[in-house]
Amino acid sequence: MKLFDLTGKVALVTGGNGGIGLGLAEGMASCGATIAISGRNAEKARAALARLRAHGVKSAFLSADVTKRSECQALVAATEAEFGRLDILVNNAGTAIRKMPQDYTEAEWHEVLDTNLTSAFLLSQAVYPAMKRAGAGKIINIGSMMSMFGAPYAAPYGSSKGGIVQLTRALATAWANDKIQVNAVLPGWIDTDLTKRARQQVPGLHERVEDRTPAGRWGTPHDMAGVAAFLASPASDFVTGAAIPVDGGYSVGM
Fold this sequence. Notes:
Blueprint: E1 10-14, H1 19-29, E2 34-39, H2 42-53, E3 59-63, H3 69-83, E4 88-91, H4 106-134, E5 137-142, H5 155-175, E6 180-187, H6 193-201, H7 205-212, H8 225-232, E7 243-246
Parallel strand pairs: 1-2, 1-4, 2-3, 4-5, 5-6, 6-7
């Protein structure tokens, strides 16, 4: 058995058309996986598909609003119709609204929680029957170091990412007998469009991150490729319920 070989496997990555999601998708593509990416920006997806196909694998973009149960079920069905199976789900869709806690509207709270947490639950529910029929599966939930730390401007975001860790543990224990491993990845400060906005909105953030991170730099989406390949592959068949930081040592630094 080749521990990291994903030839013949099909992965669905929400928010896979850029940033961390694309980094995760490329990691699996480099190991031979067929990739379906979902999102709302078709133009951005075209560039992502070109990068994935450069690895010599099949890929497709499937539009969906993953905050809605019906669209999650349709997305899973569309992936199976396109590629004949679905072995790996990466719940990566996410958003952030940065404000002090007293300033959020109820609608803003629900926007963040529904996008980051509810979507992961709904898609995991939707993919479970396919993975059970196949006799195995991998679910990778993308959390954040904000599941461990607090920030005054990230109450709904941190709450959603803490929820991702607990959802991961619940699903891991529920579906272990079905040979479905469920794990979480906790990215640190990764250089993406989302964190570019954070640096504009939070004075001094860039310097503080570099100073605290033992690796001495911000991460890149490419830094996410290895953990995706590991958690999607047979190499992690006895790993479930884990929450793995990929943060250059930020969470253990002083």
